[in-house]
Design goal:
By secondary structure, the protein is of the alpha+beta class. It is built from seven helices and 15 strands. The structure holds D-MYO-inositol-1-phosphate (IPD) and calcium ion (2 copies). D-MYO-inositol-1-phosphate binds next to strand 5.
Length: about 270
């Protein structure tokens, strides 16, 4: 049962922690929809040549949108399938990917997630990413740390590229020149490997908990990375752009690492 914090209490010290619990409850509920669909039946439609959407994406998004707009009618939302909703003047924006890793889901490959971030004046203050198959809840609150289920998480201590395990992703439109193949080819021969796991939100959480040492991708959307970027930062990692130093959610590019290999990685990548 979600114990919603009323809007009038949102700025009182400590209330963000309750908001974090709300966001986790939402992700558990949406994750259950995805899990149930995966083990029963779902339908697939094509948004582009290889860009899929399933009825699981839609059902998860419907639940999240309805719950948030009912509890916080004056907030704004940005969701992958629905776009911008709610009050455009609100200082609070919920950024949601109802199913990150749809291609994996469509192949019944159990690596996908629900990603929810809450931004205050454009800055993420809460992020949760839930893998409903592994039952792993990654969560962070600005200034308070990051967790995997009940344990606090930290990035890895790997200090050089040759001992690093990295991860990346590729755009749905591989016909564009800046499709990341060159970056991949360069780094795969300098490291212990460059994986392509298929859920940017979860990939970032794997950096946060030290399973991976770094992740980068271009051509992403805010809902792919808003929660995961905060989780990496709160786990002690570094997040930046690729063609520019500063991380900006709206540019679609992200380089996240344990911090120790960040400079070496940034020098190899072309944005
Ligand atoms: C995709 C995943 C994938 C990344 C793509 C994203 P979706 O999101 O995060 O890992 O490589 O760029 O679009 O479409 O499954 O929500
Ligand atoms: Ca996504
Ligand atoms: Ca999605």
């Amino acid at each position: 049962m979600i114990q919603w914090v009323s809007e009038s209490k949102m700025n009182i010290n400590g209330v963000n922690l309750v908001l974090l619990e709300n966001a986790k409850d939402l992700a558990y509920a949406a994750g259950k929809i995805l899990r149930d669909k995966l083990y029963s039946d779902f339908s697939i439609e094509y948004k582009g040549e290889i860009d899929l959407v399933t009825d699981a994406d839609m059902a998860s998004e419907r639940l999240l949108t309805k719950a948030i707009t009912t509890a916080y009618p004056r907030h704004a939302l940005l969701t992958e399938e629905g776009g911008k909703l709610g009050n455009p003047d609100s200082e609070y924006l919920w950024v949601i990917d109802p199913l990150d890793g749809t291609t994996n889901f469509a192949h019944r490959l159990p690596y996908f997630s629900v990603s929810i971030a809450l931004l205050e004046n454009g800055r993420p203050i809460i992020g949760v990413v839930y893998n409903p198959i592994a039952d792993e809840m990654f969560a962070a609150e600005l200034g308070r740390g990051a967790w995997l289920n009940d344990s606090q998480i930290k990035v890895s201590q790997t200090a050089d590229l040759k001992s690093s395990l990295l991860c990346t992703g590729f755009p749905y439109n591989m016909h564009q020149p800046n499709n990341n193949i060159e970056n991949y080819a360069k780094l795969v021969v300098q490291t212990q490997g460059v994986l392509r796991l298929g859920s940017a939100a979860l990939d970032l959480c794997y950096v946060a908990c030290g399973r991976l040492d770094g992740f980068w991708e271009m051509h992403l959307n805010p809902w792919d990375i808003a929660a995961g970027a905060l989780i990496v930062q709160e786990a002690g990692g570094t997040v930046s752009g690729i063609s520019r130093k500063e991380f900006d959610l709206t540019t679609g590019e992200i380089l996240a690492s344990n911090g120790l290999i960040h400079q070496a990685l940034a020098e190899q990548l072309k944005g």
